């Protein structure tokens, strides 16, 4: 069901500073920047590698307000890995299968994600403490 790791989401206080860090230390390149009001984030995708099933990225996330998913995470835990996004062929189908196994779905239906992807989150409490995102990419 999981085709690959699409991205690792990293929560940070200052997006521009973190972009500069990833560019200068690792030589990564920003391929997309978006504000996603629904998710409460300003985010950037930095390309890491290409694979048979698609590319992989680091997603840097800055909260738009303290009262957002990433804002609360930063207040509680500080900067660090926030979620893992796995590539799936069909996010609606994957949600159906995973939900049937008793895993709590944060999103019953796909949402708009970075670079035109359809995304949905699974609850970290049902995935061993890992906030897990399913990504049906439009960017093969
Ligand atoms: C919270 N918890 C986490 C967590 N965030 N555990 C692991 N990883 C995380 N990132 C734990 C937290 O420590 C609490 O456990 C418990 O879950 C409830 O958290 P809370 O403080 O009440 O926080 P809430 O109200 O923010 O709820 C947490 C959830 C929320 C996960 C339900 O953050 C959510 O809906 N996230 C999905 C949307 C999202 O994250 N969007 C931003 C990325 P204890 O302390 O009680 O044990 S947007 C994105 O990735 C895009 C656009 C994209 O890829 O394209
Ligand atoms: Co993400």
Automatic annotation (TrEMBL):
VOC domain mapped to chain residues: 4-137
CDD domains: MMCE
Gene Ontology MF term list: metal ion binding; methylmalonyl-CoA epimerase activity
InterPro entries, sorted: Glyas_Bleomycin-R_OHBP_Dase (IPR029068), MeMalonyl-CoA_epimerase (IPR017515), MMCE/EMCE_epimerase (IPR051785), VOC_core (IPR037523)
Stored Pfam families: Glyoxalase_4
Gene Ontology BP term (one): L-methylmalonyl-CoA metabolic process
UniProt entry keywords in alphabetical sequence: Metal-binding
Family membership: Belongs to the methylmalonyl-CoA epimerase family.
Name this polypeptide is given: Methylmalonyl-CoA epimerase
Organism: Microbispora bryophytorum
